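Fold these two proteins, one after the other.
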Amino acid sequence: MSNTNDSNVLPPHIALFPSAGMGHLTPFLRVASVLLSRHCTVTLITAKPRVSAAESSHISSFLSQNPQVKHVDFQTIPFHHSNPATTDDPFFLQFDSISRSVDLLRPLLSASSLSPPLSAIFADLAVASSIAPVAAELGIPNYVICTSSIKFLCLAAYLPVLVADPARLGSNSTEVNIPGLTPVPISSIPPPFKDPDHLFTSTIVRNAKALSKVSGIIVNSFDWLEQETLAAVNNGRVLNSLPPVLPIGPLRPYKTKNDTGKYLSWLDSQPEESVVYVSFGSRTAMSRDQIRELSKGLEESGSRFLWVLKTSKVDKDDHKDEVKDIVGDSFIERTRNMGVVVKGWVSQEEILQHPAIGGFVNHCGWNSVTEAARRGVPMVAWPQHGDQMLNAEVVEKAGLGIWVKEWGWGAEVLVSGEEIGEKIKRVMEDEKLRVMARKVGEEARKATGLDGSSEKVLMEILELLEQKRN
């Protein structure tokens, strides 16, 4: 914020508008926490019904911990099933419902409804096109928050160009060329992007076309981590119509109620850097066959482990089977002194910052990548869907972990327990890899520290939005 003692300057009032899923909600709540620490007024816009139970509980918890946050909760127009949906993914369907319901926000965000009046809206990329006219009507700046890597942002921004020429994403292509970036292997492109009619693809294309109208694109990344990509996009080499890309990460966690279960006390009793943490995020469900191979891999690695097990895409459906029904009584018995298997939500930030954690087997959701980066925890990158292969490329290039490209997308290949065990052993024992991961952690902390690159970007955004008293 401004260093002046001008009593006529008010901190900005910023509305935050996430889309569906914990992968989108989490960075928005972290941004909210950062803004509150800078004395900003914050309004959180949420859509209901929520897709997952985790979203509901995290929104409620955040609001109860931060009663000064204003809350606008609106009911979406349900997805109309006569529409030609190309997916049954509940999160993609909710993206569409939220986007089509944004008009309902106009009266809720007006100067007569919110005091002080809004200074800006920070909206999810998935609602960029629909929120733009609302921001214009209110006469305030509109920023997009991209919840993925800068690398994926570039692909998303360029997707309208690629979709307009289907051959570029066709079966005869081996790589995709985005100006200013190293070529992207066609295998790393999210499969839905190869179908221009897919709901996810049409959502990204529609919103990518609106990016030229926003004031800036805020990303949970930092200059050092994606330096070449950031330079290319901000020098206009990717698309000359894009606004500035503004890295303010890695975002710190926000305070939550301490409902951490028994796993943290178990970690307290383990030697330093001896435990591999295994988690595939809030919306990845592995097949039973792959779960069995993963259990074999954990045993074969000889490492202690904390494994978060998920068997359904939406957590409301994830309570049907007990852990022993999925991995077997014999596995639980054999590994009783080696590891813990957890079903349900965990505090991943607390786990990754625990001194007992020495490695992380993960899907490369961007929140997980930035959390590992903040702590310098080496990763086995195992992308499952969406942006995750491009994120895995960032992990590999930065030296934060290893990525076995032959494992493909989640369900494409049944990866053997022997291979999994071998990669876990490498991440837990390769000292060179551990040193490189620690270096990433040092650079992450520098970026968000005093005079760090991300800290400076954040301050510049807030100074632009400071309000003058009449």
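Now the second one:
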Amino acid sequence: MKILIIEDDERLSELIAEDLGDQNYTVETAQDGLSGWELASSFHYDLILLDIMLPKLDGISLCQRLRSQENTTPVLMLTARDTTTDKVVGLDAGADDYLVKPFELQELAARTRALLRRHQTNYSSTLKWGDLELDPNRCEVTYKDTLLSLTPKEYRLLEMFLRNGTRVFSRTQILDHLWAFESCPEEDTVRAHIKGLRQKLKSAGAPPDLIETVYGLGYRLKEI
């Protein structure tokens, strides 16, 4: 799951990004409204955390612009304003939820999960592919009841495949899904993570070609 944080308080943005990253989300950040708009209109995100008071383009205007372009990505507004009028303005602009600063990271995480469940009904369901199972609620992966010890990137990579059946993903698409825009590595990194994930699956008893290479195109789960 990929989340965009648009927040000009760099310290707060880093705290939120670190906390969400620990929960196996892929996180990207922007420090002003225009940068946030460029990212939100160019890439797919599962959730946007949006501050209202932003330089260059305020959060209300940014949210209105997104909705006018038929962008339905859920938006959680973050703001120091806590009056009823301010909340109504934010929600009327197209936001899905509203969180007043200062807030606890636990509450932010809970609201994040709630919004993701609301907009993606299978988010909390166990994902299965033959004897392979991924539990998003517990962030656990098992093969025939053998628990796999995956890195956060390996976990997100496997989740991406499981949520998309036999869809083929190119290396570029995998980079876009799993790495933050500002720290995107080389395509060889994808090969290394695919190799590591295959080895761990094989060690648990899975077929060595469970994640198969479609030459010239990318990777996908092998049909059962």
